[in-house]
Sequence to fold (334 residues):
Amino acid sequence: MDASAPLETAKPVALKRVFVSPGHNDPSEPINGLARELRSLGVKVYPADLSMTDDPYQWLNYALRSQILVFNRYDNGDGRYLQRQLYRAKLLGCSAVRWWVGTDVLNCLESQHTMQVAREVDAAVDLNIAVSPHLVTELRDIGIEAEYVPSFCDFSALPDNAPSPLPKGVLTYLPTHRRAFYGEAVLIAAIEANPDLEFLVIADESHALAHYPNVTSLGWIDDLRDIWSRVGLLLRVTEHDGMPRMVLEALARSRYVIYSEVFEGCWFAKSTEQVLEHLDNFKALGDPNLHGPSIVKFSKSAKFQYLEKLENQLRPGFSLIRFWQQLQAYKKLG
Fold:
């Protein structure tokens, strides 16, 4: 918030209504998971079908109903339209929160134009939240201040018993239209070098690797609960990442993880050689990853941290700060 804003002490305001605007219409969009967690806390989420909308009238309709707008964007265009929409939402009393999940940060790092547009849009944002510490650092390096809230996943309902014996299936996520980004070349090398391992590939509706005899291509799956009994290791080697639920769930289920980001409890790998070495180590193991569940305990409280961050942005209907924010938004639109 601008240092010139008026100071005010007020009682906390409960968050009841949120307008969620995803970066694209895709079932894998991370913000859909955020919406589910908010609903589990009793928060009403608009739109009901979580569809992406840039229609100005629908946008204003949802903003008018809501207290907070949480949005994610991978492509900001020239930024002017999005910025004006954010100011319009703020004029209606809706605070603007941007959620950074990984690819959106990478796009800024790889494109000077995208980075510059993100900075311009940031002038209309009240709070940036990133899902991992390394994303906070990357955003700070390009001039955008963000706060860290870990990916929130409540794994309390998972069975306490670790798998015994350790399953030898290798689970990997390979979305249809982004196979190269999600490490298809490394995955193919791993498949060809390990004919004795079963690779379970999810999210690839084209089933590009189904011709390999040691590959089971499952396409898009909404619920992995029936899959984990076959899995002993998650392989996730991407060009860039945030903090995916799949990594956290694998650890929570006492599975091993080969991951392209540095994270406690995971085997780090960026190259094919590193992946193959870790797979050899995995094949020699008989016991599950008993350390995994203790690593992800933080995720149980993450949704409450997120809720607290959002509620800190709220102001009562009659508020000097809210009036000041609306006044600034009006000036920007003028």
Summary: The two ends are 20 Å apart (CA to CA). DSSP finds twelve helices and twelve strands in the chain. The chain has a mean pLDDT of 85.
